[in-house]
Design goal:
Strand content: 5-15%
Strand order of the largest sheet: 2-3-1-6-7
Helix content: 55-70%
Order of helices and strands: HHHHHHHHHEHHEEHEEEHE
Largest sheet: 5 strands, mixed
Low-confidence stretches: 1-26
Distance between the termini: 34 Å
Number of strands: 7
Number of domains: 2
Number of helices: 13
């Protein structure tokens, strides 16, 4: 996709020489003001690894959530093990040692996602998490410290990890985790004898910490899911309302903005004009220089037009080499603005692979009447544009 003006800005500094007043920051220079943003983008890319293997937006979100869940599980296991070692109780120390293999196994989830095996990554995460809980219950804590409540958290996580089309796997994971929880809660499992050395207050603290961990795990994943869904929805809206080549709003976005401005105009009696611009002899660019040059020319003109409008006004690509411009101006100001657009495009020659040519545009301008609707304004602007073409191009004709 082209940038603001589709032109490459080249430095005049010789290769291998940098001006002393503009030092290049190191990759992780703490003084670089962009560092927080770069670290954030790096973290997002890392958490979404594996998403490049699918075009399905929903599955990409599930992959990110699986990576996040694996990170949370590994971090929680590490913190818990450290706290158990610090406490010094023999049973808790045993639990810490039993946790160590899982700290090394959770990165397997990220590796599987990176290999494009997201289905196996989900099941690897579920099986490792459930196994870790069962080992802790049967070898150390039993059920009296509520470690088995993590199984309920894993059951609730199942729909957040598996895509909708893998609903059978999500249902199986949910059912197995709930069944294991009910079995352990009803039958109970005795704790390691050394846990009796911890007083009631300490045991209650460990139990409440386990329940809090369950809640935090579910809340974090739900928030990640909501955030990812919001980002996906925003991206879809952007794609639906943007022209992929120029980055300008498309015809749909123009119609929506036009309707909004018409409603505001009726409330406030504010001036409103619409300009329809078309690149003159655009077919010659495609025929003589190729379609890639034509795309670059469209981006070139789009950037110039966008730079000519004021805040609140809109430039859109209506299709082909045709652009629509909503101007929040009275007839005289709108006509001057349209003239500026023509002159600006003509004054900025288009360059492609060492070749240069002057591009011009023709504009049909319609000043909206108090009761005029959108189709009528578009028709009048289109008719004025046709007249501008007939009268020699590179000019503005007012409807």
């Amino acid at each position: 996709m082209c940038g603001e003006s589709c032109q490459i800005v080249r430095s005049h500094i010789p290769d291998g020489h940098n001006p002393p007043s503009m030092p290049i920051p190191s990759r992780f220079d703490p003084a670089d003001p962009r560092l927080p943003e770069r670290l954030w983008r790096w973290a997002v890319r890392w958490l979404s690894m594996g998403g490049e293997h699918t075009l399905h937006v929903g599955q990409r979100r599930k992959i990110t959530q699986t990576n996040m869940a694996a990170l949370i599980a590994m971090a929680a296991t590490w913190v818990t093990s450290v706290l158990f070692w610090i406490h010094g109780n023999a049973a808790l120390a045993l639990g810490a040692w039993l946790n160590l293999p899982f700290i090394g196994l959770y990165p397997l989830v990220w590796w599987l996602n990176r290999q494009g095996k997201s289905y196996f990554a989900c099941w690897a995460l579920v099986l490792m998490a459930v196994t870790e809980v069962l080992v802790g219950v049967y070898c150390v804590q039993g059920t009296q410290l509520a470690l088995h409540y993590f199984l309920l958290a894993f059951a609730l996580m199942s729909p957040l990890l598996f895509p909708a089309y893998q609903w059978r796997s999500a249902a199986l994971s949910f059912t197995v985790n709930v069944a294991l929880f009910l079995y352990l809660d009803w039958h109970g499992v005795p704790a390691h004898a050394a846990l009796a050395q911890i007083d009631a207050v300490g045991q209650a603290l460990i139990s409440k910490s386990a329940m809090a961990g369950c809640l935090i795990l579910v809340v974090v994943l739900l928030n990640v899911s909501e955030y990812s869904a919001a980002v996906s929805e925003w991206r879809l809206q952007q794609q639906a309302s943007s022209d992929l080549l120029t980055g300008l709003p498309n015809r749909l976005a123009l119609r929506e903005a036009f309707a909004s401005e018409l409603a505001r105009r009726r409330r406030e009696s504010s001036p409103l004009s619409f300009a329809m611009a078309d690149i003159d002899f655009f077919k010659r660019v495609n025929d003589e220089w190729g379609h890639e040059a034509g795309d670059q020319a469209l981006c070139h003109v789009a950037g110039i037009l966008r730079a000519q409008v004021r805040a609140g006004e809109l430039v859109s690509r209506m299709g082909g080499e045709e652009f629509g411009v909503i101007l929040l101006a009275d007839p005289e100001q709108a006509q001057r603005a349209a003239q500026r657009m023509c002159r600006a495009v003509e004054a900025a020659p288009f360059s492609y692979e060492g070749k240069t040519r002057t591009i011009t545009i023709s504009i049909g301008l319609a000043h909206l009447e108090p009761t005029e609707d959108q189709p009528s304004a578009l028709r009048r602007a289109d008719a004025a544009l046709y007249q501008a073409k007939q009268q020699g191009r590179n000019r503005v004709v007012v409807a």
